[in-house]
Amino acid sequence: MYVAVALNRAESQVSAGENAGHRLAHVSVVRSLTKVGALKQGQVLAQDVQLKLGPGSESSGLRLIAFVQEVRQGRVLGAASMPVNTR
Fold this sequence. Notes:
The chain is mainly β. 0% of the residues lie in helices and 47% in strands. It has one domain (2-83).
């Protein structure tokens, strides 16, 4: 099982290559990806996970994405997403 912290939206100014001079918009940009556990078929995983945002990171515009991925083939078996809510 993995948890990703992702920006809902980001922009970049391209200075070289075929897109030089263009401003590109991006969605769901992963800031961090953390493996939080491993499951066996029929097993349940219930655990609290603490993720730290990097210095200067704003919680607005971020979302958490959790997903379970098959070991051998890499197929995603399930996923969920929710906005980051810091208090």
